[in-house]
Amino acid sequence: MRPTPRARNSTMKRFDALLFDVDGTLAETEELHRRAFNEAFAYFGLPWNWDTALYGRLLRVAGGKERIRHFLRSLPGRPSIVSDSEIAELHRFKTSRYSSLIETGVCRFRPGVGDAIRQALDHKQRLSIVTTTSRANVDALMGANLGRSWERCFDVVVAGDEVPRKKPAPEAYLRALRQLDLPARACLAIEDSRNGLIAASEAGVPVLITRSLYFQDEDFEGAVQVVNNLTELEDFALALPVTS
Ligand code: XBP
Ligand code: MG
pTM for the complete prediction? Predict the structure, then answer.
């Protein structure tokens, strides 16, 4: 690895496991999520359309069902007619549309992601997925990019509703750590959002941020390192600067 000025003054640490976030980190998926939400609203005759500015604000709420609920609460008159089961039905339709779009192969991994996964496997690092998106969406994206046997490369996958509280709560990371049976400091989280940074940090896991389209200007104070994409790091995940 070519040392950066920061790295030269820091302790270099190899991690036993890499914990990847999905949306924004592995691939720029959010425009397809937005499209699927809007198609679901149209299908059910609902007069809503999320544009990019509104969606950028709504993304502060992790999880599709939670995001719809939050949006409804922000509407004048708060349409209480939409129950939790109706939100779940809307979200099922959205998930099915999103997965179908992803399965066409239109959404490739971001630059450097494939190499990072290959390098990690070569160096016998363990891999995990820690995401708030639905499990079906993870299967679709990973399958489209790595092939149907992708799960053989990932020891642990924590997705969607498998934990009671989504990011920024630390539950998803804590569950992954339990399943990996590793201490938090032996792992590195790779995230693109402040919610992800908070979730991993609260679980004690150091975080590398790769900036994504919707979270360019977030405050990433507390991250081990912030990059524009994973190609900037070359041998990155194997030896990152860690000061504590
Ligand atoms: C990002 C999210 C997800 C997706 C929508 O998750 O917040 O909620 O936007 O997915 P992450 P669902 O960055 O942790 O991968 O509609 O399936 O919830
Ligand atoms: Mg993300």
Answer: 0.91
